[in-house]
Amino acid sequence: MSTLTLPLPFLAAASRPLTAVGPTDAAGEVRAVSESGEAAWLDSARGGDSEAFGRLVALHADRVYETVLRILRSREAAEEVAQDAFVRAWQALPSFRGDSRFSTWLYTIATRRALDVARSEKRRRDRVETVESATLERAPAAGGREPAELRRLERILTELEPVRRAVITLHYLRDFPVTEVAEILDLPEGTVKTHLYRARAALRAAWEREASRELL
Length: 216
Fold this sequence. Notes:
It is built from 9 helices and no strands.
């Protein structure tokens, strides 16, 4: 396959409010795409058509970036991982057999890479015995507006370990069923369910604590 030049500027995509997007035309207008249309682009991309893959990038970029950002809590790291995930997907596309949905396969690449980066960063902090938490950025809200409840949720999510942030994001915010979350993260379904249960309990307790503080 030829070297891919990504048609979507990731920095621009990351700086605007995250919305459900479709492929863009020359004027930058978002157009809806059917599953059959996406399948046609995928077939073309697997044949080496970088323009068709660019349309797939435009279709999934914002949501992949947002998912990675929720795991890493760093805008710069999320940009690098999202960019890297699409490049890896392009390089591996000939081996994609369609055993799962393209979106599942793509999130597998992006999420596992994000978790690898998160684990590496944790090991680095442990080695230097960092006593201060890294400054964590909140994911931007859809539509550019963040109600108090969403800001509170974002603060609470930072308290979870990366794999549980990934499970919560994929299942509740990306609507992947437990079976596909397990596939994406390469975990048994039972482990995913345990992470969901414990994450929900932790979120509930933290939510109540935050709510109590705000009433004081």
